[in-house]
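Before a computer can learn anything about folding, someone has to put a protein's shape into writing. The outcome of that step, for a single protein, is printed below:
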Amino acid sequence: MSSEGNLGVTPREAEEKALNKRLDTIAWACFLIMIGCLGLVPKEQVPEGTWLVGVGIIWLGLNAARYLNRIKMSGGTIVLGIVAIVAGLGDVYGLDLPVLPILLILLGAHLLLRHLHQDRAA
């Protein structure tokens, strides 16, 4: 038992948890700043899917920061980040992309890869 009262939590785990919380806070701050900035620019000057591209970059950036700090990444925000970027770029370039089927394919691939990774770890 540690003197801090964290049963079964190593100092490294506590440090990772604190860093992950800071990274999440930074990602939320970036999201809010991006939405605020987009709200200040006249709509006709900002392509329709810009906010989706921004969200995707923020989510993927958050997971890149986690990876670089050896913190477990979130498969859900990786998949959603990719979908957001693809959908946003489709909107920016006027493409009518089938976002739902793309999302379903990516979610299925994520589940499959996670299952295969768990089988290798066992």
In short: The first helix runs from residue 11 to 40. The helical segments are 11-40, 50-68, 75-92, 99-121. The radius of gyration is 18 Å. The chain has a mean pLDDT of 90.
